Amino acid sequence: MSQQLKLKQEVAKAALAYIDDGMILGVGTGSTVNCLIELLPQVNLKGAVASSQVTQDKLEALGIEVMDLNYVGELDLYIDGADEVNPNLQLIKGGGGALTREKIVAAASKQFICLVDESKWVTQLGREFPVPIEVLPQARSYVARQLVKMGGEPVYREDFITDYGNVILDTYNLDITSASEFEARLNNIVGVVCNGIFAANQADKLLIAKSTGVETLQR
Ligand SMILES: O=C[C@H](O)[C@H](O)[C@H](O)COP(=O)(O)O
After folding, report:
1. How far apart are CA 1 and CA 30, in angstroms?
2. In 69-178, which residue ranges form alpha helices assigned H by DSSP?
3. Edge-to-edge strand list for the sheet holding 197-198
4. Residue 171 pLDDT more than 90?
5. What pathway is this protein said to act in by its record (predicted)?
6. What separation in Å is there between the alpha carbon of 32 and the centre of ligand 1?
7. Least enclosed by CB within 10 Å: which of 6, 7, 87, 186?
8. Domain limits, the chain
9. Domain 1-120+198-216 falls in which CATH fold?
10. Closest ligand 1 atom to Cα of 98
11. Which of 102, 128, 158, 183 is catalytic?
């Protein structure tokens, strides 16, 4: 087993302590959260709200009832991974293309706990990992030109369609000195459905797995 998978399993195990019996849990997407999903049969959940079709399928395969967010109201807890996290617990997400539904579930939750291994820790977002931007298919070229004007280098994620039928522009080279401002600027481009900067919906708590153990950071 790789060291990184081991760290993902450790941080997933640490997250179990925050899940209460009888809860409806918001469940993220990705390889880190997959480690958590495998452990969820240990908890007596009332149900879950899934942040992607992939997660929904995995939860249902374990016999966990997946509920429609529109009918459950505010969730107590959302747990998800991230592609990058900075010291303010702001994130880049969407490497797996699930950013829009993830941001909706995060926004609808009282608390967002983010699970990462130490490879995800950065001082400034977007220097290495591109910002995934979900775009209406018809607006792809227009949005790409606006991103170039902002100094970005958008790359169309080929052969990928989101759960909502849209496309993704993975955008490199954005100078994200203020994640909040950048998130809002990207949202202002007509045709953008959602962007992968999670500043308005940043993590409340970060569990970070290191070779020395799992550390907890609180906002
Ligand atoms: O769309 C995918 C999500 O934002 C994931 O949370 C993110 O890509 C992290 O995934 P992983 O745990 O596989 O690194």
Report:
1. 18
2. 69-72, 99-107, 140-149
3. 84-85, 91-92, 197-198
4. yes
5. Carbohydrate degradation; pentose phosphate pathway; D-ribose 5-phosphate from D-ribulose 5-phosphate (non-oxidative stage): step 1/1
6. 7
7. 87
8. 1-120+198-216, 129-195
9. Rossmann fold (3.40.50)
10. 1
11. 102
147 burial (CB, 10 Å; 0-12 / 13-18 / 19+) is buried
| Contacting residues for 118 by C-beta, under 8 A, at least 6 apart | 7, 208, 209, 210, 211
Q: Cα separation of 167 and 134, whole Å? A: 6
- Distance, in Å, from the CA atom of 207 to the CA atom of 217, rounded to the nearest integer, reads 7
Which ipTM did the prediction report? 0.97
Cα–Cα dist 24/70, whole Å: 13
CA 153 to centroid of ligand 1, rounded, Å: 21
Of the chain, the end-to-end C-alpha distance in Å amounts to 32
In terms of DSSP bridges, do strands 192-195 and 131-135 run parallel, antiparallel, or are they unpaired? antiparallel
Fold of 129-195: Alpha-Beta Plaits (3.30.70)
Rounded average pLDDT over 194-212: 98
Q: Which residue type occupies 129?
A: F
Concerning whether 102 is annotated as a catalytic residue, the answer is yes
What tokens does 75 get?
A: 């969730």
Instruction: Say how many residues make up the chain.
Output: 219
Beta bridge partners of 132: 170
In the predicted structure, residue 36 carries a pLDDT above the cut 80 = yes
